[in-house]
Amino acid sequence: MVKLKTLFRSKDEIAAYEGLVLVWPCAEKISSHLASMIPDDQQSLIVPVVQEAIVAYHQPYPFYMTDWERLAVYLIMTINFTTHILAGKMNFHEVAKSCDLPRKMTPAFIEDTAKKLSMELEYA
Known about the structure:
There is one protein chain. The protein has about 120 residues and is an all-alpha fold. It has helices at about 10-25, 25-35, 45-60, 65-85, 90-100, 105-115. It has one domain (about 5-115). It has six helices and no strands. α2 (about 25-35) packs parallel to α4 and α4 packs across α6 (about 105-115). The radius of gyration is 13 Å and the shape is globular.
């Protein structure tokens, strides 16, 4: 399995990722699993997506967002990217199921969070 941290280039990128992993240890395993699903020659493409997802996790929203919903935002963005790269070979829910997500991160919870933020799930 790919260690996602090894794909980052700068100390700031590594620090932002480690901050997320400190709060959500499951994020490292999930992110590494998603990176390993992507063909080797495209794995570095996930780095900017993870960076954007971390920014989205931390950004202020005009309404209350629980920590679980914020994690769902991170997952939606990274799983959407993975399903896009896989070009329909697996849908969003198949990729999510393969990630061994925390129990609370059910398909219904992820979909509710996506609706709350008007986000789309790729190939759902």
